[in-house]
Amino acid sequence: MTNAVSGLAASIRAATDSETFDLAGHDAINIKQTINDAFNQPFQLDTMIRITFVVGAGKLSRQKYDAKAGLHVTKALQELDFSEDKGASCMNECAGCYKTQHDTGKNVFTVVVFPKLANRGDGDGPRDSHGGGCAGSSEEYPLPIPLVEGTPVHTILLASEETFQKMAPSMCPTWSEKKMCSEVLKLAVETLQSMDNKLMTGTPLSDEENAFYNETGGSASITTKAERLKKLMQQQVENGGQLMQHEIDRLLQQVEEKIDAFDADIDAATKMSQEKKVAKLTAQREKAVARKQMLEGHTAQSPPKLKHDAQIAKLSKELQPLLKLEATVKGRLLSMKETKQLAVKDEMLEEISELEGASRGWFEDEDDFEVRLEASRKKRTAAGKGGGKSASGGKGKKAGTGSSSRSANANTTWLTPGGLAAKQASLGKKTAAAKKSKPRGGGVFSAMMMDSDSDSD
What we know:
mainly alpha; 5-stranded mixed beta sheet; 17 helices; flat
């Protein structure tokens, strides 16, 4: 691994433009050595570049990374006199800064480093009067900026209101995906409001902040998108109950918790003889009870098919004879014909895995995707009539770990402001890492999956 680490450090120092490096497979010692070799001397550059390290990912890919990879990177940087600045951006004044980010589109964790520059003298960017921050950098926002071009978050924020309304039903077919998308829009509104507050104090916005503000159309445009998405969520819950079982269970749990809270508040108000408050709380409780009864009356819908279900089923059918052949040839030499036949088996399993990963929705939670994935695999196993190993991507491999995972997502083109149609057509290639999150257990996506108001869906 020593040569690989040395090679990685050399590649980092050779960078003349902003680049991303993946630290999958590197342990603590290798990471520390790489960071030290790469950043112990200023870069021979005139203008700032951004060096991004991928240090972690969602459940399906997190085993590739050292559990404390991000900590190892930041600690090594601190030993080299780098300072953390959440608002650092790609400008010379931010030399010697770093920041950690969670890419909500790809669901990967990164450390972004702005190296020291030899052509700036001492290589350290000037700090502001409060210390610890680079001059002119933007503050920390709820939604990290700049946006990563071509990601789902970038697409929905830059889409016109009309385009967003047309693409929302297919972009977020399930209630859970709509909920996740609505939370991203909420973070965008909070980010824009923070920028408005900054302008109100007379503080100018950085180039990246101005770009975000202008490209998204301001908080009014994002709020309109959020309201339209909210209506779609309400229709999905109230008109026919187009919900999967785990979505019904989630909503029931939330409304039951609210009923319990109303009971406690009503009891407290009654003891204090606050009749008006009791009446108001009782009316709200009745609405919650009615909502619970509605949800209990819904019949759960089957999980939607995978986007590439037909292609996967075709490959699985073609794979069955090979799996049977593999099971019968154990313990004996293979003929030339058998060798050629089995040679394509792993390629087919890899292709199935890639198609599974490419079937994941833009804002689909990991647990939701696993439900659909498991349903698809059970169906294929049944179709194979017990023909041995299930064609599920092979050897316990998680969906979408193939080299071209999500490439099929490039089929959909949404027209967005600024002539981004062609760029959006390659969306899948730019978002090869699947979007994953776990709604129970913390993190930004955990908060995204919580229902803030019964009336909000």
